[in-house]
């Protein structure tokens, strides 16, 4: 049995030429990019259903923020977190530019890290501009890439301790 499995793996490995591997990775990267754009569009429009479609179908998906208590596990908790995020800006007011980004993939898993410049607005308040550090792990499920875990971190100016 092991010999059959090893023969199948070797035959599969030989069939995947470097050019084909690059083509497959290029397509996967385009699919990941499209999923990230879907996430950002859904966040900007405060479309919770579309936003949650960017996360893996698994009860142990994770979203983490910057401070204590900013840990959400599972779809219901992550949905609730995004509802609270929506209260901080008006739908359609968010813009994002990520001048530094890095990522890679291996099989059905991919990772990314980025530093993004974000601006948004809430009616009656001045526009906010801040940097957001983001890292994530994605998994391919049913021919679509989905977040397994996402971590974001931002230091928004405010009074320091004792001020």
How would you sum up this structure in a few lines?
The chain has 163 residues and is an alpha+beta fold. It has one domain (2-153): Nuclear Transport Factor 2, Chain: A (Roll), CATH 3.10.450.50. It has helices at 2-15, 18-45, 48-52, 75-86, and strands at 62-64, 71-73, 95-106, 109-120, 128-141, 144-153.
The CATH topology turns out to be Nuclear Transport Factor 2, Chain: A
- Poorly predicted regions: 1-21
The total beta strand count reads 6
**Envelope shape:** globular
Strand order of the largest sheet: 2-1-6-5-4-3
Rg is 19 Å
* Helical/strand content category: alpha+beta
Give the biggest sheet: 6 strands, mixed
Estimate what percentage of residues fall within beta strands.
Answer: 25-35%
Task: Encode the helix/strand succession as letters.
Answer: HHHEEHEEEE
Number of domains: 1
Q: What is the correct CATH architecture?
A: Roll
> How many distinct helices?
4
Global mean pLDDT: 83
Distance between the termini: 69 Å
CATH C-level category: Alpha Beta
Percentage of helical residues?
A: 25-40%
Strands, helices and their partners?
Blueprint: H1 2-15, H2 18-45, H3 48-52, E1 62-64, E2 71-73, H4 75-86, E3 95-106, E4 109-120, E5 128-141, E6 144-153
Parallel strand pairs: 1-6
Antiparallel strand pairs: 1-2, 3-4, 4-5, 5-6
Can you give a write-up of this model?
By secondary structure, the protein is of the alpha+beta class. The chain has a single domain, classed as Roll (Nuclear Transport Factor 2, Chain: A). Helices cover 36% and strands 33% of the residues. The protein has helices at residues 2-15, 18-45, 48-52, 75-86, and strands at residues 62-64, 71-73, 95-106, 109-120, 128-141, 144-153. The chain has a six-stranded mixed β-sheet with strand order 2-1-6-5-4-3. A hairpin with a 2-residue loop joins strand 5 and strand 6. The chain is globular, with a radius of gyration of 19 Å. The protein starts with a helix and ends in a 10-residue tail after the last strand.
